[in-house]
Amino acid sequence: MELIKPGTNINFVGSMKLSFFISLAMIIISIASLILHNGPNLGIDFAGGTLVEVKFKEDTTADTIRSALNTVNLGNSVIQRFGYKGDNEFLIKTEKTSSELKGLSDMIEEALSTAYPAGAFEIWRVEVVGPKVGKDLREKGMLAMIYAMIGILIYITWRFEFRYAVGSIIALVHDVTITVGIFSLLNKEFTLPIIAALLAIIGYSLNDTIVVYDRIRENLRTQRRQSLGETINGSINQVLSRTVLTSGTTLLVVGALFFLGGAVIHDFAFALLVGIIVGTYSSIFIASPTILAWETWKPSKKKRK
What we know:
By secondary structure, this protein is of the alpha+beta class. It has helices at 16-36, 44-47, 62-68, 104-115, 131-159, 162-185, 192-222, 228-238, 240-260, 266-297, 301-304; strands spanning 41-42, 49-56, 77-82, 89-94, 121-129, 189-190. The chain is built from 11 helices and 6 strands.
């Protein structure tokens, strides 16, 4: 099955400068948002603290819940709706841990019972993460992504050439930065599942990039009379149908998770949606043109001869 007709010749390489400025603008906006927000909005997993999820049978508001919890000293706490409006689920998050709040679940239940009738709510879960554990998870999450990047650099250099590895790493940094930046712009929480999503994005984007790289290398061997730019452009066009089909079917699955999977995996699915779109874009407009830019800056031995 081919959505793109054979012989299609879209000038992707000709759009290299435009795509560079678009990507640069998105990266600058992402970094600026992170600076203005003092980094990503870390969830309980990384920041540490206590999270309580409460399910109400009738519609209520965060202000009503906060008023009911005045008797409980929660410190710097956040009360927000969880899921969709009709679900009537709320998250109560505080920086304090169970060592500071003995029997937090019982205290919240007792305080809410004074403002709501019996059976009007249920406490569904209580999660506690200490500050040391949160810091450890944060560091290990960052190390996981760094090790993944180093492994990719070594693998692509071994399988192709160093210039290909540089292109793939630039594309992956581009994808991760923009995804994290969008989370910062929307003030979405950065949790462990989001780290898992970023690692999945790295793998997906790399797979897409390797398919294009493989075709470029193959065409460089068989079409020696063409310039490098023509070869790169032709290679991207040749795998374009496969790229559209793969990305399209993956987006359908992730879209189903996003719209039907519920609030628990909503942010995880959103990260994947953004990552797949940005990753497909980067494999065409960032990773491949980087090879051409590298050749212009540092010609290969064959070209110098």
